[in-house]
Fold this sequence. Notes:
Oligomer: single chain
Low-confidence stretches: none
Mean pLDDT: 94
Strand content: over 45%
Largest sheet: 16 strands, parallel
Amino acid sequence: MNLSNLLRSITDWIRKQLELRLVTNRIVVNQKNFTNIFSNTLDSAKEYFIDGIINIDGFSTSIEVPSSGLVLKGFSFDNSQIICTDNSYTLFTSPIGGSGNLLMHNFAVDISGTSSKVFDLVSDTGNEAVEIHDVNFNDCTSLGTLDNYRQGLETGNGRFGGTPDLTLKGVWNGYRVSTSIVRSLDNSMTPALFVAGTGFTIDSRFLTDINCDLGNTAPFADFTPSNFTNSSSFRLFDTVITRSGALDPTDATILPNITNADTESYFKNNEGIENTFVGGQLTITSTATTTVSASSTYYDILGTWGTSDLEHFDEPSNGQLRHLGNTPRQYQLIAILSLDGTANDVLKVNVRKYDSSSASFSDEYQLERKINNLAGSRDIAAFTIITNVTLDENDYIILQVSNETAARDIVAEVDSYFIIKER
Length: 423
């Protein structure tokens, strides 16, 4: 046997072994054997393959997801389906103690009976995952409840028709829905598409780029800020959310219990909801004299600083702009100031940062200008400042001024302002 034939023989043998292993680890499920297979304890080492469109009306037993997990696959959501129209039926349940990982790929589910649902699952240890890929939920009465899983991942899924609310309970690290679509929901649907169940918290993030058309009344999610442990962890990126086909970013019923401006929210490049623009502005609304007791010494710029467009920021004390979140951290500061004083005096403005973690101040940026000798009594120095700053949680910025020439007072004019915005 020459070398070429030997290599071919080895390759054929390896392929046959792989095929044998695949067949050994796959259990094909069809209309005839469904009841027999799923009425018994399932083998977590096997892959259960949905072969065809299987109607399980009258199958009163749920599919119990073992503590060691379950894998279900199919050809596609057109050619592999599980359908049940029975009332008060639940497709997936947990044994006493809880279930392991549930992995679903390439099939469709239609559980449409009155008071029926797809899931009633609780995690065995709190360290399990639910991953659902290329699965359509058609005309489902409810997707049911997932409780205390470590994480959930949906990719390429569809929710079409019915009232497919999904309740998340317990403590989760994260939940992600990517490249998924929602269409043709029943207009009678009142629960949210994503429901915050008992004790629901997200330690990392809930993230989606979903394309979703809601019915007349159902919210997208009924989450509240208290469901999120960290700032910027409710993340809607590149989503399209409509109600009955119409875009209305002012529709507060889409997210009734949380807003784009809440510290826990981080909404970017979306259509149909308001986006988050992290930052804020302070503006002098009435003047006050900044008393300069010594030259070349910084003093906080006084006056009444009014707030506007605060998102993830607040003003804990007059003239302070404080970051309330922990992400993002990189910001740009823009200041436009008109400072009135004595002609030809040299003024210097200082951007001063308070670091909450070290309870200390640092000088971030300084700019020097001379007060112009103008006609009349108004002599001003005009400052335009653009600089970058890094702000962690509870860090804040305040502006200061010094008179480098003499101990002479300064007044910041009305409409002087500074802005902090995300880079």
